[in-house]
Amino acid sequence: MIRLPSILLATFSLLAWAQTPKPAAPSPRLKVMVDPGHGGDDGGAKGPKGLKEKTAALEIGQAVAARLEAAGFQALLTRDDDTFIPLWDRARVANAQGADLFISLHLNAARAKAARGSEVFFLSLGKGDDEDVVAVENAGAGAAPASAESVVASILDDLAQKAFLQDSERLAVAVQGQLNRLAGIKERGVKQAPFIVLRGAAMPAVLVEVAFISNPKEEEKLKDAAFRAKVAEAITQGVRRYFAETNGSVRRRMVGAPG
Hints:
The chain is α/β, with parallel strands linked by helices. It is built from 8 helices and 6 strands, in the order αβαβαββαααββαα. A 6-stranded mixed β-sheet has the order 2-1-3-6-4-5, sandwiched between helices. Helix 2 (53-70) packs across helix 8 (225-245) and helix 6 (165-182) packs across helix 8. The radius of gyration is 23 Å and the shape is globular. It starts with 5 loop residues before the first helix and ends in a 14-residue tail after the last helix. Residues 21-50 are annotated as: Disordered. InterPro entries: MurNAc-LAA_cat (IPR002508), N-acetylmuramoyl_amidase_3 (IPR050695). It is an enzyme of class 3 (hydrolase). One of its GO terms (molecular function) is N-acetylmuramoyl-L-alanine amidase activity.
């Protein structure tokens, strides 16, 4: 029997270890920040039978987060209870958490009770398409902080979101199409508006007006867990379609927010 020197045995062991296939490092899950609108003292719009926008938005947000998790995403919520978060802070929460997408959820309202359907907005740095909706959703935000540092930060925020306007539009189109197809909600189109909640998001960002809480029929739908599940599935499929169309690219990393 030939005995190999111990140094040769050690060498062979090291070579064998080096050639053993290593398990691939798991790829990080894409993060989606779900932002249920309003909360706390800010109840938002109110339905004919008393349903508050803040309540419906939270229930939809929780359903969306659960569905996104089931689909393999990491879902984050700006609020998971009846808490008020200033509009200026919501995108900053998404930035701080390193979110890859930002989706703010709201319910529309109109004087005409027959108004119905969903519409999805992405940021406009100008006037926008629907001044009435902008006035309602930006109400109570107040002026941006006026310190020199805040002014500089605001300029940088606008530049950051401007870099993502095309991707935000793609996300808006994908989500709107799925709301119409899967949730059976009348499509009112994709629009642009200067929503404060979208400013400063260092990732593609949209605001979804899921339905009209002022419409008695849609208010009843919003109370139905099965309908909210359809909305959650539609938004999730919209997110998946967006990433499929962009080959899974996550451009927000270029902005330098933590990931």
